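[job 4471] stage=fold_predict status=RUNNING
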Amino acid sequence: MCCSGHDVVRSTEITATSPAGSGTVDITVISPGGTSAKFSADQFSYTSYTPVTPARICDTRAVHPGVVANQCNTGGNTTLGSMGVLNISMAGYVPPGASSPIVPTNALSVVVNVTAVNTTQAGGFLTVWPTGSTMPNSSNLNFGAGESIPNLVQVSVGSRGDIYNYNGSTDELVDVEGYSAPASTTTGEFVPLSPVRICDTRPPGSGVTSNQCDTGSNTTLSGGKTIQVQVSSISGIPSSATAVVLNVTAVNTTANGGFVTVYPAVSSIGSPPNISDLNRSQGETRANLVIVKVGVNNSVDVYNAAGSADLLVDIKGYYG
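[job 4471] inference complete, writing structure tokens
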């Protein structure tokens, strides 16, 4: 395996950029002293990303309209108290209403949107890590009292997944958006781009140029409204893209308890999946990263649950 570029960090460490490829390959180092031997310990495995239609795999809130019985509100998994740890299945788990696992058992990592709601203390945070490994000294989501706040997390898959809550009590919502697994082809490799704004529902002017989201029926989203946003075959995104990486921002929000759902576009706009990508309150400007599968018309659908809000969508890359 040869690399397009490398840097010698120290006498025992080299960083390198791998070429496109698939499967598992050997890595060797060539120096004036010769070529290093091949060992299984230094093999490199390519992975590919597979986007899925977003699905909720965990909700610690009690069963009520909009919240079904699931692995996180039955069998001892409930609202997380201070210093509490939530242990959930990710790879191989079949959510309520599904007939097969969303994430296969050979997945190496999963991309999930984690949302904290019903928070009771300031200075709280969540840490997500694979079951079976030591909890890292890090945070994936920070929140204050009374906030509903999400963040996108990519985490390695252990036997299960753990979520730790530092302070106060909080309910957790976990929505899976895709997974990485060993690659047999080059499909699913990430291609980064310089960020480009492809959607802005605000009226043109004051830094807002005319675009696909402030003309025709695509304008400020009222409660319960869905718009369709073209994400490929534009701005350097090929029509072959399977998923896109977006930064979605809600501004000019008018109601508490609102949320935004981004999902693969369907031919006739109907009910969105029971997940959320961005939670916000009245008057807040809130953003979150979203990795979403591309649907019909090279597009994704964006749904606003309550109150009115303007949406800004910036594309940052795609999976081929």
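[job 4471] summary: Residues 91 and 103 are 5 Å apart (CA to CA).
[job 4471] exit 0
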